[in-house]
């Protein structure tokens, strides 16, 4: 497996994005992360970028290209939530989540695809969520943005599949992060009852799947949705 390829992970300063960046660094890749604040893990190049701003995305890519070379693997992970029930959800609650989670993936992948087409090789990995296809009360904006990534990856596969470029979706379930740690013990137990594996995942378990789907071993997989959810979303 070639490990000196250039990887860009958006939202790589914390949570799943950080674990993904760490996994690629450990495997010897040249890794950059985008972050609105904070820094990526040791061994990464951190660039500032707001994925809702195309000019900022372009500038971030230029910075990475100048420092490391063309981006060959892009992991669109940056995402936000603004959870509330439909009748309370404001226009901004909906628009800002879609602009970041779906629009951000569009801007980042569009910019990355130019170099991939020149190289005739590329890996696009879109980080979705079990919620995208399973649904979740109070998350209409988030679930809609995450399920949309499936159509994105499949359309991209039809456009670029013959150029050595794959596009896949990784859909994590409940992960041990700062967000789940804030849930009460009762709430956590309730969630775990619905997960056949009976536990939350570690961020590193998601990172391992992302690293594999970006590798040469997965060259013939494209347009797939790979759940990393302990069986929670089976059949969705």
TrEMBL record:
InterPro entries: KR_dom, NAD(P)-bd_dom_sf, SDR, SDR_fam. One of its GO terms (molecular function) is 3-oxoacyl-[acyl-carrier-protein] reductase (NADPH) activity. Its EC number is 1.1.1.100. The keyword Transcription does not apply. Keywords: Oxidoreductase. It comes from the Bacteria. It holds the Pfam family adh_short_C2. Belongs to the short-chain dehydrogenases/reductases (SDR) family. NCBIfam families: PRK12826.1-2. This is 3-oxoacyl-ACP reductase FabG. It comes from Microbacterium arthrosphaerae.
């Amino acid at each position: 497996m070639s490990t000196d390829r250039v990887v860009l992970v958006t939202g790589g300063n914390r949570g799943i994005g950080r674990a993904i960046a760490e996994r690629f660094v450990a495997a010897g890749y040249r890794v950059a992360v985008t972050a609105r604040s904070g820094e990526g893990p040791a061994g990464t190049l951190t660039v500032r970028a707001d994925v809702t701003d195309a000019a900022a995305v372009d500038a971030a890519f230029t910075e990475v290209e100048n420092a490391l070379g063309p981006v060959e693997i892009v992991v669109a992970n940056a995402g936000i939530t603004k959870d509330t029930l439909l009748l309370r959800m404001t226009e901004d609650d909906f628009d800002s989540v879609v602009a970041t989670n779906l629009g951000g993936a569009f801007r980042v992948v569009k910019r990355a695809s130019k170099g991939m087409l020149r190289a005739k090789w590329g890996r696009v990995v879109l980080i979705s969520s079990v919620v995208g296809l399973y649904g979740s009360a109070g998350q209409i904006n988030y679930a809609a943005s995450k399920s949309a990534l499936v159509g994105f990856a499949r359309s991209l596969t039809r456009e670029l599949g013959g150029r050595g470029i794959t596009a896949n979706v990784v859909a994590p379930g409940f992960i041990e992060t700062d967000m789940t740690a804030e849930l009460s013990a009762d709430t956590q137990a309730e969630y775990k009852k619905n997960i056949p594996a009976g536990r939350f995942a570690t961020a590193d378990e998601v990172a391992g799947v992302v690293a594999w789907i970006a590798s040469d071993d997965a060259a013939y997989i494209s347009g797939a949705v790979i759940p990393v959810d302990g069986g929670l979303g089976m059949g969705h």
